[in-house]
Structures are given as structure tokens and as C-alpha cells.
Automatic annotation (TrEMBL):
One Pfam entry name: MFS_1
Keyword Membrane: yes
InterPro entries: MFS, MFS_trans_sf
Protein name: Major facilitator superfamily domain-containing protein
Subcellular location: Membrane
Membrane topology classification: Multi-pass membrane protein
Key words of the record: Membrane, Transmembrane, Transmembrane helix, Transport
Spans traversing the lipid bilayer: 73-95, 104-125, 163-184, 196-218, 317-335, 342-362, 374-393, 405-427, 433-457
């Protein structure tokens, strides 16, 4: 790259490169955390609860009331991920093109309405249509939150802030399961509306309430109303050192950046890491026989260990508590130790490999139910490899259009992996399900290999760029300054040779 030509072509405002004191940055960071983290924590947690709520509703009469039979229940999950996949590119394009926070909020309103309408369903066809719409509307929250995290936080803050709001999945599983448990028990005793319909009404109303608050809080630094003009400038200057342009509103689509995505090795590493992590996440089940899996239908799966329908909800709470604790501990660890993300990803694949193998090979007898319960709880760490892999997209993919495309490809892998996983455990393999067990363990093993090669590629590329800078006689401060200027000009991580990858 000819540096002078590149820099002359960059239309960068002086505001983007203003320097403020670290005290100003810290003061603003506290305000950013105060507004954004609780809101993202709530929205992501309620989205995960809404997505998997049919497994709880199935415990309380939904299948019998709607006359579900054969593979109809399984299709309620499959159709969700099909429309989730279809909606990825349109939704991420809208997130780049229009107001980030408002776009997220409108999608949130869409799936809350779907949940409210599910309470009025009288047959499988109606439920399928609403689940399809729900999948379409829920598809943009993860890429949207990845964009928000990148727009507000420095590279070294991406992993721990992402894990904080992603830990809400476990927290909401505990709180909402207790609330839904209480709702179902109460309605069962007093009669009236069916318990599963009450669950849908409650979750839909709670989601709609969250959407009201997100309308006023979520967005990029240039969009939100809770910052002053001076604070907007500080927020922009604070993240400029990421060497990634985060101003997404009203910008043109770059076909050059689109094509670059398919020449970038890290895109493929991230894609297959997500794909392999999600295959054990979407197991099939029949209404009469529950198969082993990691997340989908977890409330039902506890029944195979020997717990009744009420115990299935209550004994699942410790696992959700572990989920929250592990995520927060890892977030605090990564706050102190940089470039350790990929080591944690490797460990988070090895532990579920062991837990899944032991859990699946032991028979479903009362003698072994607590061992299986413990092994299943140990698999809770598997999603760290998935979420930390997503945080690497936030930290290491530069260029507005490139970031949008890579986020979409990553979420497409998420959908495909869950749909493949839905076919892994087959009734014909009962009761040991050896084929499904081997497939899941193979996925975790392959994921370890991919993460190791992924890290080696980052190390090679960083060292290559260091050698280029050394040949040019550039010091660290000069490399940082030039990298920031090119990043502010929306150059990709390929085009910006002063960009360094985080690990």
C-alpha cells in the first residue's frame, strides 16, 4: 500500500483524532456501562428465554392442547432457525444503513407481538407461522449488540463487556424459570387460561416493556440522546485507537469489502468455529423420547435423568447459576489478562467433550441420575468458545461493510449448526445414542483444532506486519497513529497494515 496516497484519500475529521485525558475516558466509561450494560443484559437475556420458551411450554400442555404429533414439535425449532438464517443479511444491512438502536427496537417489538399472539394459537399451523416470524425478528439482536459493543468499547474491553451481557442467558433462565414455574403452578391450581398460554403472555409483555426502554437507550455514540455533544466527541476519540470505524449510519455499501470477506482466513475460522459449536446445541427430540443435547429443550432433557416435570425446571437452576458465575469470572479474568481469549476457548471445548461423553454413555437409571446431572452441568462452559469467537469479530474485523457481512456469515453458521444438530440424535439410536454422542464429541475436538490454527494465523500475521513496520523504521507510537488514521477512514484490517489482531 502506498501510505501517502492512502492517507490523502482518507476524509478524516480532526474531531476523531482529538486526545482527551484518561480521567475523562474513565468517567465517560462509567456512564456508558451504566446505560448500556443493563439494557443489553436484559434484551439478550429475554431474547434467549423467548427463543427457548417452547420447551417449558411443552411441559405444561402445549403439545396436548394443540394436538402436536410426529415431527411437528421439532419443526417449531427448525422453522425458527430457517427464518433466523433468511433474515440475517437484510437485518444487518438495516443495522448498518439506519439508526442502530431504533432498528433493534423495532425488531424487538416484532418478536414480542409474535409471543403475545402465540398465546392465542389453536393449531400447529398457526404456531408454525408465528415461530417463523419470531425467528426472523430475533435474528438481528446478536449482530446488533456486536456492533454496539464495537462502537462504544476499546478492543481490550470487547471480550469482558460481551460476556457480561451474554451471561444474562443463564441469569434469565433462573429468574424466568422460577417465575414461569410459579405461573404454571398457580394457573394449574385455580384453572382458567392454560398455563402455557400464560407463559407466552408473560414473556411477550416483558419483551415489549424492554423494547420501550431500548428505544431511548440503545444506539451508537452519534445516535443516543443521553450524551452531550462533548461526550460524543470523547466517546469517538476513546475508541479510535481500535483502528476500526464504527460510524455505521447512512454509509454506502462497499463491494470491495464484501469481496474481501471471502479472501480472509479469519472469516472461515470464525464461521466453522460457530458451526461446530452449534451442532451440539440443537438436538432433536420426540414428544415421548427426549434425547441428550446441550441447550435446546434442556428443561425436557432433565426428565431423562429421572426427574419429574417440576423437578426438571428446579434442578436445572444450578446449571444456569453456574453459567452466570463462569461468564462473569471469565469476563473479570479477561479484563486483567489480554490476548487469552483463545486459550479459554480451547478449555471450554475440552470440558464439554468429557461431560457429554460420560453423560451420554451412562444409562438413564436412578443410580446414575446425579452423575449425569453433574456431567450435564459441566457442559455449561461450551458456549464460551462460541461467544468469545464472536467477540473476536468485534475486535479484529475492520471496515463497516466487511463487519456487517462477517457478522451475517457468523450468524448463518449459527443457524446452520443448530439445524444440523437437530438431526444428530435420532430415535432409532435409543437408548445410548452413540452416533449423536460421537458427532458432538467430534465437533468439540474439531473446534479445538480450528481455534489453535486460528490463533497461529493471528500470530503469523501480527509478526509479519511487525517486520514490515520495522523495515519502514516506524516506532510503536507512529504505528498506532497511522493505524488510527486508516481505521477512521474505514480501511479494513487487510488494508491497514498497522492493525494488530487480538487473541
Amino acid at each position: 500500500m502506498d501510505l501517502e496516497i492512502a492517507l490523502e484519500s482518507c476524509q478524516i475529521t480532526n474531531t476523531c483524532l482529538l486526545e482527551y485525558s484518561e480521567a475523562q475516558y474513565k468517567r465517560l466509561l462509567r456512564k456508558i456501562d451504566y446505560y448500556l450494560i443493563p439494557m443489553m443484559f436484559f434484551c439478550y437475556g429475554i431474547q434467549q428465554t423467548d427463543k427457548t420458551s417452547i420447551s417449558i411450554q411443552a411441559l405444561f400442555g402445549m403439545s396436548d392442547d394443540l394436538g402436536l404429533h410426529g415431527q411437528q414439535y421439532q419443526w417449531l425449532t427448525t422453522i425458527f432457525y430457517i427464518t433466523y438464517l433468511v433474515g440475517e443479511f437484510p437485518s444487518t444491512w438495516l443495522l448498518q444503513k439506519y439508526h442502530l438502536g431504533r432498528t433493534l427496537t423495532l425488531y424487538m417489538v416484532g418478536w414480542s407481538i409474535c409471543l403475545l399472539c402465540i398465546s392465542a394459537c389453536n393449531n400447529w399451523s398457526q404456531l408454525m407461522a408465528l415461530r417463523a416470524l419470531q425467528g426472523f425478528f430475533e435474528c438481528n439482536i446478536t449482530p446488533g449488540f456486536m456492533l454496539i459493543t464495537g462502537a462504544w468499547y476499546r478492543t481490550e474491553e470487547h471480550a469482558n463487556r460481551s460476556l457480561f451481557w451474554q451471561s444474562s442467558q443463564g441469569f434469565f433462565s433462573i429468574i424466568c424459570n422460577l417465575i414461569l414455574y410459579g405461573i404454571a403452578r398457580h394457573v394449574t391450581k385455580v384453572g382458567g387460561i392454560d398455563p402455557w398460554r400464560c407463559i407466552s403472555l408473560f414473556l411477550g409483555g416483558l419483551t415489549l416493556l424492554g423494547a420501550v426502554f431500548s428505544w431511548f437507550i440503545l444506539g451508537s455514540p452519534h445516535e443516543v440522546k443521553w450524551l452531550s455533544e462533548e461526550e460524543r466527541r470523547i466517546a469517538t476519540a476513546r475508541v479510535i485507537e481500535n483502528q476500526i470505524s464504527e460510524d455505521t449510519v447512512g454509509k454506502k455499501w462497499s463491494w470491495a469489502q464484501f469481496r474481501e470477506c471471502f479472501r480472509d482466513p479469519q472469516v472461515y475460522f470464525g464461521f466453522f468455529n460457530t458451526l461446530l459449536a452449534c451442532i451440539p446445541n440443537g438436538p432433536y427430540l420426540r414428544l415421548t423420547e427426549i434425547h441428550s443435547g446441550i441447550t435446546a429443550f434442556s428443561s425436557l432433557m432433565y426428565q431423562t435423568f429421572g426427574f419429574d416435570e417440576w423437578g426438571s425446571m428446579l434442578y436445572g437452576l444450578p446449571r444456569n447459576g453456574m453459567y452466570v458465575v463462569v461468564f462473569i469470572l471469565v469476563a473479570l479474568y479477561l479484563r486483567k489478562f489480554q490476548n487469552h481469549r483463545m486459550w479459554i476457548m480451547i478449555v471450554s471445548c475440552i470440558l464439554p467433550f468429557v461431560g457429554m461423553l460420560v453423560m451420554s454413555l451412562l444409562p438413564n437409571t436412578p443410580k446414575h441420575k446425579w452423575v449425569k446431572w453433574g456431567m450435564y452441568d459441566m457442559t455449561v462452559v461450551f458456549s464460551l468458545a462460541l461467544f468469545l469467537g464472536w467477540s473476536l469479530v468485534t475486535s479484529n474485523v475492520a471496515g463497516r461493510t466487511k463487519r456487517t457481512v462477517v457478522s451475517s456469515l457468523t450468524l448463518i453458521a449459527y443457524c446452520v449448526g443448530n439445524m444440523i444438530g437437530a438431526q444428530v440424535f435420532q430415535t432409532k439410536d435409543a437408548p445410548r445414542y452413540m452416533a449423536g454422542t460421537i458427532t458432538c464429541c467430534a465437533c468439540f475436538g474439531a473446534e479445538v483444532v480450528i481455534i489453535v490454527v486460528w490463533r497461529l494465523w493471528y500470530m503469523y500475521e501480527n509478526r509479519r506486519r511487525d517486520r514490515v513496520a520495522e523495515q519502514e523504521g516506524l516506532g510503536k507510537e507512529e504505528i498506532k497513529r497511522l493505524g488510527q488514521r486508516l481505521g477512521a477512514a474505514d480501511k479494513t484490517d487487510f488494508e491497514n497494515l498497522y492493525f494488530r489482531y487480538s487473541m
